[in-house]
Amino acid sequence: MAEPTVSDDLTGALTQPPLGRTVRAVADRELGTHLLETRGIHWIHAANGDPYAAVLRGQSDDPYPEYERLRARGPLSFSPTGSWVVSGHALAASVLSSADFGVSGADGGPVAQQVLSYGEGCPLEHERGLPAARGAAESGDRAVVERVHRETLEGLVPDPSASYAFELVGGFVRPAVTAATAAVLGVPSDRRAEFGALVEQLRPLSDSLLAPQSLRTVRAADDALAALTVLLADSAADSSADAAADAPAGSLRPDGALLSALGVSAAVRLTGNAVLALLAHPGQWKELCERPGLAPAAVEETLRYDPPVQLDARVVRTETELAGRRLPVGAHVVVLTAAAGRDPEVFADPERFDLARPDAAAHLALHPAGPYGPVASLVRLQAEVALRTLAGRFPGLRQAGPVLHPRRAPVGRGPLSVPVSA
């Protein structure tokens, strides 16, 4: 069946007007109506054959067939949701590195395709102004991360009632990444459980900017963002011996609560996706176990093959031309970094996961000019250490049950649960 014809007339697109105020400033009834109506619009467009709307709907464990449908429409296509969608690697790279595109509109506020605004304006825009973090491996953070990951894995207590050894994400990856991040940030030991709970509540936040979540999820994320901001401010001012002993000198201290939460979520998803890809290719898992030095290569290939952040949304700041189309100020452009990582014009046999791929690092995931740029090195480090730790302790690791993925998660991709045996 031929793909339905989609008009590129922005005036004919069916979109929801921007909320116009922050989440905190809107009553439950108005916010809930906004979320439901926006989600309904996505479902209508998806039912009418728009693959990008199907991605936003977030009801599939595997979005890659939709990316291929978008790729078949060319490197730039228009979605009736009102967004321009970039799937080609070359065009994606040009958008992500261009000053003509920002995370929010020229006035600092969200556009119609951005569902919500937390705080003043678009929070991701503020985070982009932070200086890029130096290499975490050079800062002394590596020793902290390695210690926390090792202790977390050694402390696993198998559930005697379960048919598997342990749950990978909830039992090891998320606790290790969260605890290591808290240690690097200098969060006092007596507040790390609070830090972990707040970060978990913020897990759906990046998705909620494009895909409507439930009212309860949005309210919880908004409250958690405010509470985490206070916690990190308190931690920065805390000079207790406990914090000083546990955090390396000059350790990374992002100035934004959102940035640290994004880093935790991205590292957890990246590690989960890497383990799933490796276990689906037992020969490559065996090779990693025999050659732990391949862990960085596994991380880069995962960022190409199945990245933890699947897309990067931008807004046109200056009228510009893209793939022969003139885009006005305020136009919404979505870069499918996951699709770009499987562009056959750049990567040979792109559907194959390959630890020996020589150009894996040409992917566009965790782009330095995007919201994740300041924490990308720490995200990579956490995933690398997790893979080394697992491979060293459980060379016979294998999947022991069905994988659970979240719904309404078009931006962040990674498993919620992976039962494994060792």
Structural class: alpha+beta
Mind telling me which CATH architecture this is? Orthogonal Bundle
What are the secondary-structure elements, in order, as H or E? Answer: HHHEEHEHHEHHHHHHHHEEEEHHEE
Poorly predicted sequence stretches spanning 5 or more consecutive residues: 1-7, 126-138, 239-255
Radius of gyration: 21 Å
Query: What number of domains?
Result: 1
- Total strands: 10
Mean pLDDT: 87
CATH class categorisation:
Mainly Alpha
Q: Between the first and last Cα atoms, what is the distance in angstroms? A: 45 Å
CATH fold description: Cytochrome p450
Output the CATH homologous superfamily: Cytochrome P450
The number of distinct helices, counting runs of at least 4 residues, comes to 16
| Sheet with the most strands: spatial strand order | 1-2-8-5-3
Furnish the topology, listing elements before pairings.
Elements: H1 28-47, H2 51-57, H3 64-72, E1 76-78, E2 83-86, H4 89-96, E3 101-102, H5 123-128, H6 141-154, E4 166-167, H7 168-185, H8 192-201, H9 205-208, H10 215-237, H11 241-246, H12 257-279, H13 282-290, H14 295-305, E5 312-316, E6 320-322, E7 325-327, E8 332-335, H15 337-340, H16 376-393, E9 398-399, E10 419-421
Parallel strand pairs: 2-8
Antiparallel strand pairs: 1-2, 3-5, 4-10, 5-8, 6-7, 9-10
Helix pairs in contact: 1-2, 2-3, 6-7, 6-16, 7-8, 7-12, 8-10, 12-14, 12-16, 14-16
